[in-house]
Amino acid sequence: MSSLRSPLPLRTAVIGTGGIARSSHLPALRKLAAEGGTEVVAAVDTDAGSVGRFADDFAIAYRTTDLAAMLSEVRPDLVVLCTPPAVHREQAEAALRAGAWVWCEKPPCPSLADYDAVAAAERGGGSDPYASIVFQHRFGSGARHVRHLLREGAFGRPLVAHCQTTWYRDTAYYAVPWRGRWATEGGGPAMGHGIHQTDLLLDLMGPWSEVRGMAARLVHDVETEDVSTAQVRFESGALATVVNSVLSPDEVSRIRIDCEHATVEVTHLYGYRNADWRITPAPGVPEETAAAWRDFGVDEPSSHLAQLRALVADIRAGRRHATSGQGGRQTLEFITALYKSAFTDAPVHAGSIGPGDPYYTQLHGGAPQWAPATHPEGTSV
C-alpha cells in the first residue's frame, strides 16, 4: 500500500513484546482502538514464549517469531518497533518495503548511517509510508502551548537554556546483556535516557549550530558513558547546557528557557502534565499578559498516546509526522555531535558529520578508551 485515506482503523503490528510494549505501547494502542484509530492485528518476537503470552494477554490472534512472514501474510498498515536499537534499521527497512508506516521506539538507531539508510528505504512521496520516532514529549499540551508562544515571539528572544536528565540506574539495570554496549544500545544516557529531554529542547529552541561535550564513565562497568554534559550554541545565538546522568539518586527531568520577557520551565520525571510547567514573567509584563501565557487549555499529558493520536492523524492526512525524516534526525545528529566533541575534545558544528566520518557509522567513533576492545582478528571481546 502506498497511501491511506480510509477512515478505518490502522491495522497495527507490534514488534517486540517486552516491557516497553506492555507498559506504554499497548495501552496507547488499545485506547486509540476504542476511538477507532488503530486495531492491533499481530505481535512478533524472537522469543516464542514471550510473544505467546503477550498475544494471549491482549487477545491478539496472529503471533509469530518470523517478522518477514508476518509482513507478507498480514500486510499491516502500521508497524510499531519495541525492540532494542541494534535491530531497528533492519526491521524498519523490512516494514517500509512491505508498505507499512513505522513508529520506532527510541533510540532510533545506533548511528546516523543507520538512520539515513532507513530514510532511503522510504518511497519518498507525500503520502507514502515513512518511519517516525517515539519522541512523545513533543506532543503534550504543555509543550504545544509553549512552542506556540515561542514561535510567535511572545516571550521575546530565547537567551539561556538548561536541559537536565539526571536519573539513577543500578548495576542490576546494566545486567541486561544489550545495555551499556555501543553495538546494541547505541550509547549511554545521552542516547538512551536524555534523548527525550534533548529532543524537546531542540524542538522548542530551534536549530543548533555548535556543541562542546564532555563524557565520563564514573561508576558503571559499561562500554558507554554513564554521565555527559554539553554546552550548546543555537542558530538564534542562544546558549544552553545539557546534562545527562544515570548516577543521580534524586531523579528529575527538567528544561528551563530564559527569554527576554519570561522564564519557562518544566520539571517532571518520565512525563509531564500542564501543572508541571511554570512561566515566570519578567518585571513590567502586564498581569493579563502573564495570565494568558499561563492558560494551557485542556490538559493532555505527554505520552505515547498523545503522539500516537498525532501520528495516526498525519498518516490519514497524507502528511509527514514531526518526528520522521529530518524532524527525527536532528536529535540523533545532535547526540552524535555531543559524543564526537566529548571524545575528540573539540567543538562540533551542525551538518559536519557525514559519510567518511568515523562518528557517522559508530557513536564512539573508534576513539581510544571508548571504542569496544577487540581481539587481534578484529572481533569484539
Counting DSSP E segments of at least 2 residues, the number of strands comes to 14
Helix-strand topology string: EHEHEHEHEHEHEHHHEEEEEEHHHEH
Return residue spans where pLDDT drops below 50 for at least 5 consecutive residues. 375-381
How many H/I helical runs?
13
Oligomeric state of the chains present here:
single chain
What is the total domain count? Answer: 2
Class by helix and strand content? alpha/beta
Mean pLDDT: 95
CATH class of the largest domain: Alpha Beta
Report strand order across the widest sheet.
13-12-11-7-10-9-8-14
Measured as a percent range, the helix fraction is 25-40%
How far is it from the N-terminal to the C-terminal residue, by CA?
44 Å
InterPro entries: Gfo/Idh/MocA-like_OxRdtase_N, Gfo/Idh/MocA_Oxidoreductase, GFO_IDH_MocA-like_dom, NAD(P)-bd_dom_sf
Domain Gfo/Idh/MocA-like oxidoreductase N-terminal: 10-123
Pfam families: GFO_IDH_MocA, GFO_IDH_MocA_C3
Protein name: Gfo/Idh/MocA family oxidoreductase
Note down, in words, how this protein is organized:
It is a single chain. The protein is built from 13 helices and 14 strands. The chain is of the alpha/beta class. The chain folds into two domains: 124 residues, 3-Layer(aba) Sandwich (Rossmann fold); 204 residues, Dihydrodipicolinate Reductase, domain 2, CATH 3.30.360. The protein has an eight-stranded mixed beta sheet. The protein has a six-stranded parallel beta sheet with strand order 3-2-1-4-5-6, sandwiched between helices. Helix 4 packs parallel to helix 5, helix 6 runs parallel beside helix 9 and helix 9 crosses helix 12. It starts with 9 loop residues before the first strand and ends in a 20-residue tail after the last helix.
